[in-house]
Amino acid sequence: MTLIFEPTNIIISGVGGQGNIRASDLISRAFCEEGYYVSVGETYGATQRGGSVVSHVRLSRKKSYGPLIPLGEGHIIVGFEPLEVYRVLRDYGHDTVRVITNDRPFYPLDALQKKCEYPAPGQLISAIKILAADLKIIKATDLAKQAGTPKAQNLVMIGAFAGLNWIPMAKERYLESLDETFSGTGLEVNKRAFELGYQAVLESRRTAPAQDLNGA
Hints:
By secondary structure, the chain is of the alpha/beta class. The protein has a single domain (about 10-210), classed as Pyruvate-ferredoxin Oxidoreductase, domain 3 (3-Layer(aba) Sandwich), CATH 3.40.920. The protein is about 45% helix and about 20% strand. The protein contains eight helices and seven strands. The model has no long low-confidence stretch (mean pLDDT about 90).
């Protein structure tokens, strides 16, 4: 299948402890099995838990590309935290960039200690809408709790990404990457989280593009 962009650049953004490096690994495995050339890289902010973590996934049908996406050339952003999505959009977005994000803020320590102010969630989402050509919002943390643990919000986001099918690929490819990575109870919980994200997106096909995806 021909990609719209060559290469197609996916950015997975979040903060330390949210599991976006694991998410980039699972997505990359799936596309590798589908026969794509895949390059993966990461950039980090503060090294402690709560610092920015941005994963770069570059897909091609023709050749391998360098692992880091050039500024202004992100095509899809998968966000685990809305403020990090906004930061990535300012640097990597362009006129046709598509975004899917968790709605739950991850407040930095300085904000919790009242040393700085975290933007109001509504204002933040409005700012993201201005920069994104297409925006999907999902209550990934809430859905992860339904699956068994809020830590599985990264798997909810992978399921939602798969369900959107912005880069067409069979659902089974993603599930194979889960089977290769997890086992036992962890596999069961992560598959439930993936499925909740996937089904939330299927429900969203009957709603407005920027409406919250809550799996209801």
